[in-house]
Amino acid sequence: MSNILKIMAISAFLAGGQTEASAQNDHFEYNNERFADLQMLRYQVKGFDQLSLKQKTFIYYLTEAAMYGRDILFDQNGKYNLRIRRILEDIYTSYQGDRAGKDFKAFEVYLKRVWFSNGIHHHYGCEKFVPEFSKDWFWKEAQHVMTTDNALRPYEAQLPEIVNVMFNPEVMQKRVNLAEGQDLVLTSACNYYDGVTQAEAEEFYGKMKNPNDPHPVMFGMNSRLVKKDGKVQELVWTTRGLYGQALTKIVDCLRKARPFAEDADQQAVIDKLIEFYTTGNLHTFDDYTILWAANTAPQVDFVNGFTESYGDPLGMKASWESIVNFKDLDATKRTETLSANAQWFEDHSPVDSRFKKEKVKGISAKVITAAILGGDLYPSTAIGINLPNSDWVRKEHGSKSVTIGNLTEAYNLAAKGNGFRNEFIDDKEVIRLVDQYADITDDLHTDLHECLGHGSGKLLPGVDGDSLKAYGSALEEGRADLFGLYYVADPKMVELGLTPNMEAYKAQYYTYMLNGLMTQLVRIQLGNDIEEAHMRNRAFIARWCYEKGQSDKVVELVKKNGKTYVRINDYEKLRGLFGQLLAEVQRIKSTGDFAAAQALIEGYGVKIDPELHKEVLERYEKLNLAPYKGFINPVYTAVKDADGNITDVKVSYTEGYAQQMLRYSKDYATLPLVNN
Ligand code: ZN
Questions:
Q1: What are the E-state strand segments in 176-313?
Q2: What pLDDT score does 193 carry?
Q3: Can the peptide bond before residue 491 be classed as cis, meaning omega within 30 degrees of 0?
Q4: Which percentage of the chain shows pLDDT scores above 70?
Q5: How many CB atoms lie within 10 A of CB 154?
């Protein structure tokens, strides 16, 4: 899987600032609790009440299907996660000691982090977070619950091992390790491989690939690769295989949802998905994604399945996720305008014509309202999605591109007045531009990235979509970002009525460069490298342009009163640099030039200037903001008549974070604590 197609909120926290401490809109409280480096938010499902009963019922069953996959992700993220979660939750609910005491307070934060990350590693940085409560305290409490909870009792003898996994910083250090020169499989703590080396995994899948197959399936995406009896083999995730208990529940919910689908094509999508979950056949999966991509008429839509491969150091194995959503009909007009002009954008891009698509097709673009987030989209989520991931399916059948309007809105409104912008931007004119245009151009950049960026360009015949290996994700995200950056400044935007004038794009250029050169570093601990694909892509773009524009002083880093600021002196030349880099990145992708991808990303996207990093962290710390955000889901309640038919679905926003997590662990627990 070479295309990793998700965009995270990039500069959402830059937006706003006019109204101090007002994170309310229509009396809706967006900000919720805060702990560690995390801020919990709520999102509003505007328009839900206006849907038909049939649509609401459809959504209801799909949200149930979305919840039942939660345990899969915990287990995919690390083989101890389900046992650890169970122990922690038992202690949390039964603890009789001082709940205001130091150990319990630190324990509570740790548990909330485990919930947030779906495991013991940071959801974004992938490093293991080490508990700040005492090991002795934990040992005593864990021993107690392991003897009293029937589900845990079989694992009592493993307590020393579990404590070691939690407390020893040397053990299972990183969920996904992408450090060059190491065995990425053996050094990654994710649960996609067991007892196999990187070389063995690469050999196993290398043999399956037929370079002449124009329609290759995504080998390995739905299985764990293990060595059993000396033989490397796959444990496939199906209703009858690994994770069968969870997948069976999901299939049950899909069956209940099916009669309420909006058209026969959507029912066929559900049938194919059920067939895939039942058989694990990867050709069936491709067929399913083709049906799904073509099914654009219904207002309600969903993703449910093994989707993104960020969690696998080799970029093959897909984590389970789900989102249920419905089209925001007004906002969708914006992305439809882009889609309708897709061929114009492809034809006019600065990319070599050999790498362009003669015919860009099937890009459906819409703005959606998220109704529920599940699996790898919960609580931390994407604000745009572009699927399916298979290169040939995208090329021949197109893809669906969505931006999630109500989540972006929640980010923006929650960030009002947080002081971030005034700390990192010193120029009044730039502040004016950002004030006036950042919200519009940020949304537009996301749309360009998702609707056009990922779908543009083509591989030369015979080029393997996986040739860029570990660099594939960052390069692909960079390609989509560059496409958006290049075009957000195009007069075509004004002509199409997407930006009000030819200065609006400057807000996006400034915030992008600021983020890529400086402020995204707030998400990384001092001394660490940049690992995550989207952060690498922003870094390599911003730094490459900074360096290449140095002789003309296109972009400068200037010091004022000991603080570093980004100064853009020539926006037009910066656009030229984005165009140049887009052409080069497309060439790398189209020709599968691994060495060039490696040089670009290792050269510009990984290492951090420690002095600048320290300064940014110190300035950010003073603002006392959480660098990561995640969402509490709304609660859907089905009102039923005497025969069990749903007569209405109510949505509420009052459930607390811990309350929600405990409810999910209780009502949607599907898997045994150990899955082999
Ligand atoms: Zn993307």
A1: 193-194, 223-228, 231-236, 300-308
A2: 98
A3: no
A4: 95
A5: 12
Let me know: does 265 contact 295? Beta carbons within 8 Å. Answer: yes
Contacts 24+ apart (CB under 8 A), 492-498: 492/341, 492/344, 492/345, 492/348, 493/444, 496/337, 496/338, 496/341, 497/337, 498/334, 498/337, 498/338, 498/444
- Cα 547 to averaged position of ligand 1 atoms, centre (Å): 24
Residue 516: HSE in the Cβ half-sphere, 13 Å Cα cutoff: 27
Name the token pair of 438. 């950042």
Query: Which residues fall within 8 angstroms of residue 471, CB to CB, at 6 or more apart?
Result: 594, 597, 598, 600, 601
User: Is residue 128 classed as helix, strand or coil in its secondary structure?
Assistant: strand
Cβ-count burial 205-237 (b if 16+ within 10 Å, e if not): beeeeeeeeeebbbbbbbbbbbeeeeebebbbb
Cα-based angle 215, 311, 485 (whole degrees, multiple of 5): 75
Neighbours of 388 (CB within 10 A): 25
C-alpha 7 – ligand 1 centre gap (Å): 5
What does the domain layout of the chain look like in residue ranges?
5-66+241-631, 79-189
pTM of the predicted model as reported, rounded to 2 decimal places = 0.77
Amino acid 427 reads D
Q: In this predicted model, what pLDDT tens digit does every residue of 549-566 receive, in sequence order?
A: 999 999 999 999 999 999
pLDDT greater than 90 at residue 11: no
Residue 81 CA to ligand 1 centre (angstroms): 28
CA of 554 to the centre of ligand 1 (A): 26
Rounded alpha-carbon distances, angstroms, from residue 100 to 37, 105, 133, 411, 656: 21, 6, 13, 31, 19
- 101-109's contacts with Cβ under 8 Å and 24+ in sequence apart are 102/133, 103/133, 103/134, 103/137, 103/138, 104/133, 106/131, 106/132, 106/133, 107/131, 107/133, 107/137, 107/138, 109/35, 109/36
Determine the 3-state secondary structure of 440 from DSSP.
helix
Q: How far is the CA of 295 from the centre of ligand 1 (A)?
A: 21
Q: Which residues of 241-267 are buried (b: 16+ CB within 10 A; e: fewer)?
A: bbbbbbbbbbbbbbebbbebbbeeebb
With a CB cutoff of 8 Å and minimum separation 6, the contacts of 592 are 459, 460, 463, 464, 467, 468
Q: How far is the CA of 6 from the centre of ligand 1 (A)?
A: 4
Pairwise CA distance, residues 228 & 41, whole Å:
44
pLDDT more than 90, % of the chain: 84
Q: Ligand 1 centre from 84 Cα, in Å? A: 33
CA of 117 to the centre of ligand 1 (A): 21
Distance 480 CA to ligand 1 centre (A): 6
Give distance in angstroms: CA of 473 to centre of ligand 1: 9
What single-letter DSSP state applies at residue 470? G
